[in-house]
Every structure is written in C-alpha cells, then in structure tokens.
Amino acid sequence: MRKYETVVFDLDGTLLDTLEDLKDSVNYALEKGGMPKRSLEEVQAFVGNGVKRLMELAVPDGEENPKFAQVFTDFKEHYKIHCNDKTAPYPHIMELLEELKKKGYKMAIVSNKFYGAVQELKKLYFEGYIPVAIGEKEGIRKKPAPDTVLEALKELGSSREKAVYVGDSEVDIATAENTGMDCIAVSWGFRTREEQERAGGKIFADDPLDILELV
Fold first, then answer.
1. pLDDT tens string 49-106
2. Rg for the chain (alpha carbons), in Å?
3. Are 165 and 211 in contact (CB under 8 A)?
4. N or C: which end of the chain has fewer CB atoms below 10 A?
5. Residue-range domain boundaries for the chain
6. 19-82 — its CATH code?
7. What is the rounded (10 degree) CA torsion for 195, 198, 200, 205?
C-alpha cells in the first residue's frame, strides 16, 4: 500500500541547481546600479522567499534604496533571458521523475520563483513528467502560505492527505505544515540538513532516489 499518490516539488535547490544563474543576474543588476556585487554564498542565503525578497536582501538598504525598483527590474529582465545558462537538474533527479511517472504518481512544482521563469524551466526540463507548475503571481499568496500548493493539488485533482511536499528550505517545511501535508526535506539544496532540522524538518532524503523509498 503506497503512502502517497501525489508528490509536490519545490524547484530551486530541490529539482534544479539554479544558484549560478541567480547570482549572475543579481550581480548584473547590482553592477549596473553601481552597487557592490554579492558572493555565491550570500545569494544562497538570500533565496527561498521569492525574487523580490532576494533583491531586497542583495541591494544595500533594500527597498529603502532609491534605485531599488530599477535594479529589481534589471534583475528580472536579465534573469528571464539567462535563467538557463548554467542551471541543471541535480544528479538522479531525472531518474527519480522517470520512476515516479512509471509508478503512476501525480506531480507538480510549486515555487516562489516568478511565474514566467517557472513555466520556462518546467518546459525545458520537466515536460512529459510534471504537468502542473505554479510560481509567484499576483492575487495568490506565495509560500509559506498554503495557497499555491492547494492550487496545484486542485489542478491535479489530488487531496493533501495523499500528497507529500518535497523541498530544501525552512520555507518549504513551513509550507507543508501550513498546508497540512507531510514534508520530505532534501539535503543537497540551498540549506544544510542542520538548518532544516532547526526549522522542524524530520524526514530527509540525501539523494533524489531516496524519495522512492519514502513515498
């Protein structure tokens, strides 16, 4: 008797390693605005709550900075074009999706990345595996609110009781909790296992193929 029917994935740091492309777009926008660039470690610490929050943390003084709106626009325009320069699925992700599909699991992506980029990356990497992908958009609260996950479950015709959320950060752990779903935390993403344990993570996958045993 299988435990779940549906697997909902976070995107950045869970399915795809997007960090280098995010860093490059952040630094392009900062440099254009005459601001100091950020290291890979800094960008890694800033991600998880959507791109606006990423740029608030990257820009000195955040939204208080008079150049913030322009820098944020420059970032989005650059990232739209360059979101796939260095991005790639983590090792064994495609094998995991192949197996889940073969076994008949329903799958979705729910991300705080902006909607257009989520659709673009889904199309590039996960077409044929994951039919539903939801990113940040107007009129729906982003994670850790449950809204985007509930929207994905509705589109799949799934119930939260039979679904599990897979993610790599404190935002994902809180999202699963707020939605009333179980959570599998992954240790290969943007937050360490220790950070996720502190955030309440209990079930861990150290390799994507471990997820097959957990669902």
1. 889 999 999 999 999 999 999 999 999 999 989 999 999 999 999 999 999 999 999 9
2. 17
3. no
4. N
5. 6-17+87-214, 19-82
6. 1.10.150
7. 40
Contact 70, 33 (CB under 8 A): yes
**CATH 3.40.50.1000 for domain 6-17+87-214:** yes
For residue 138, the model assigns a pLDDT of 87
- 79-94 as b/e: b if 16+ CB within 10 A: beeebbeebebbeebe
Residue in this structure with the two tokens 């779903």, named with its chain if needed: 181
Q: Count other Cβ atoms within 10 Å, centred on residue 23.
A: 22
Q: Annotated catalytic, 12?
A: no
Q: Which two tokens stand for residue 149?
A: 């996950």
d(CA 214, CA 87): 27
From 10, 17, 168, 182, active-site residue: 10
In this predicted structure, what is the pLDDT of residue 48? 87
Of 20-29, 133-142, 164-173, the range with the lowest mean pLDDT is 133-142
